Amino acid sequence: MSGVTGSVMWRAALIQALTVAACGLVLAAALPRSFFEDFGWAAGPGVWGACALGTAAVLRLPALPALAGAAVAGIPSLVTVLLGAHWAGVPIAVGVFAAWCGWLAGRRSGRAVAAAA
Hints:
Elements: H1 6-30, H2 33-59, H3 63-73, H4 75-82, H5 90-116
Helix pairs in contact: 1-2, 1-5, 2-3, 3-5
């Protein structure tokens, strides 16, 4: 049974946090507040998913399983958005997504070990 690959987990957390923050800052500087009031429901998950795909590519993880993990990890952010504290859920979501990426990497290396045996 494979576990979580810690180094991948920490790198995923760093990459996802930095890319989400950078995209958030760029979008906030480039677009008016009204855009986020009208289209934030699409922009936020879109940016989160794009950043997750980028993180998966950098870490050489499979794209679709990483995107599925990003969707599940985004649920805490959705809850905090509904409660009116938009960015409060992001650290939790980053942590869940990072753990998912570490698990994917552990699963991948577990398959390589099993295939070699």
